[in-house]
Specification:
The protein is an alpha+beta fold and 393 residues long. It has eight helices and 20 strands. The strands form four sheets. It has a six-stranded mixed beta sheet with strand order 6-7-8-3-9-10, with helices on both faces. Strands 11-12-13-20-14 form a five-stranded mixed barrel. β17 and β18 form a beta hairpin. Bound molecules: adenosine-5'-diphosphate (ADP) and magnesium ion.
């Protein structure tokens, strides 16, 4: 028997408590012991590359997938562990997917009001609330249309209305903007942020797009190969990425190899191709060892002639792209390539420039030969040459 929460119960957001969540498909451990606490009403973005386990975690939260180990609690109540499993319809949550997943045989209004039927609301009340929800997403005039008569963006707004109309305790979004064009994506992102926050539900929003994550999140949780590697507000993830993986995945202008000259007051001084750079560092960075300095795009600045900067690298412009408010340059610098170097002036290819580097946006990590950095071998065993930045003649 379905015991859907009554309307009065279904108001406040769930607190979500995930402990040691493990999920396996065959031999593959897709969730490798995830611990995560989400306070009620918080907007959490789960960020990770394709295949990192984001959808699997959402499906475990939703209850369409069982855990192999660990537990999930909503507002203190056990919903999943190795033995117990509360079915999805009893978890008081709603999901919005990449592919909209509307019922094709129901109109927009039918899709939205269907979500209210299990709440035992009087049908006129349900209808009014569904109409209001459609109005909120700007679709009041299209209420009688069927999904196939709506554009992708309109269908996703119906899905959004359907998700919030029953006031669930948890809203799950799985890459809801991925199938939409850029301008529409931006507008719908704002609408999701507003409507989801107004609903007071706790939100778990999945994306592989770091810009989307930074724009939406109260907190970002970064997932790498089924492990949660860092969680915190966007500012913290950006300024203090805990690992090289997090740093790379959340916006990089480039990486510079170097050697640690010294550590002082929370900063490391790194020799990069003969230029001393002051940078932040994380983890076990040791004087004398080799490191990799990751540079955030916002930390780079073209220095004017004669301008003094704490740290700078000379470089040659190898590409320039117009970005509306100015230009983004790619430079072959002493030590490595830096991309996304912004300036309001267009510096043509071949220009010799000096790039200032803000220590706050640069971080050193121990040089570890992980698979991404190890030499790639071709089938005949030869190591291919890495694509090199071409220096203009
Ligand atoms: P993401 O959403 O981050 O792209 P997923 O959670 O969809 O990642 O998938 C994580 C890993 O689990 C992938 O390697 C995927 O191939 C695997 N996987 C997902 N679902 C299944 C399934 N039903 N059966 C077997 N493997 C699966
Ligand atoms: Mg996915």
């Amino acid at each position: 028997m379905s015991i859907a929460p009554t309307d009065a119960e279904a108001r406040a957001g769930h607190t979500v408590e995930i402990r040691g969540a493990v999920k396996r498909y065959g031999k593959a451990r897709v969730l490798a012991g995830v611990d995560l606490d989400i306070p009620a009403g918080r907007f959490l973005v789960l960020l990770g590359p394709s295949g990192s386990g984001k959808t699997t975690l959402a499906r475990c939260l939703a209850g369409v997938e069982r855990l192999d180990g660990g537990s999930i609690r909503f507002s203190g109540r056990l919903v999943s562990d190795g033995r117990h499993h509360l079915p999805p319809e009893r978890r008081n949550l709603a999901m919005v997917f990449q592919d909209y997943a509307l019922w094709p045989h129901l109109t927009a209004l039918g899709n939205v009001s269907y979500a209210l039927r299990r709440r035992r609301l009087a049908s006129d009340v349900a209808r009014r609330r569904a109409e209001n929800a459609l109005e909120e997403v700007g679709l009041a005039s299209l209420a009688e249309r069927y999904p196939h008569e709506l554009s992708g963006g309109q269908q996703q707004r119906v899905a959004l209305a359907r998700a919030v109309v029953a006031r669930p305790g948890l809203l799950l979004f799985d890459e809801p903007l991925s199938n939409l064009d850029a301008d529409l994506r931006e507008r719908l992102r704002v609408q999701i942020a507003t409507i989801a926050r107004d609903s007071e539900a706790t939100v778990v929003y999945i994306t592989h797009d770091q810009a989307e994550a930074f724009a939406l999140a109260d907190d970002i949780a970064v997932l790498d190969k089924g492990e949660l590697v860092q969680i915190g507000p966007p500012e913290q993830i950006y300024r203090q990425p805990a690992t090289l993986f997090v740093a790379r995945f959340t916006g990089s202008a480039g990486e510079l190899p170097g050697r640690v000259l010294g550590l002082e007051g929370g900063y490391a001084v790194i020799d990069v191709a003969g230029h001393p750079l002051r940078v932040r560092y994380a983890g076990s960075v040791v004087v004398g060892t080799r490191v990799r300095v990751l540079v955030r795009p916002a930390a780079t600045r073209v220095l004017l002639e004669g301008e003094i900067s704490g740290a700078a690298l000379p470089g040659t412009v190898i590409d320039v792209a117009y970005r509306g408010r100015g230009y983004e340059h790619v430079l072959a610098c002493a030590g490595g390539t830096l991309a996304a170097v912004f300036d309001s002036t267009r510096w043509p290819r071949g220009s010799e420039l000096s790039v200032g580097l803000d220590p706050e946006g640069c971080a050193a990590y121990p040089e570890i030969l992980d698979t991404e950095m190890a030499p790639i071998t071709t089938p005949n065993g030869a190591a291919p040459t890495r694509a090199k930045a071409a220096v203009p003649a």
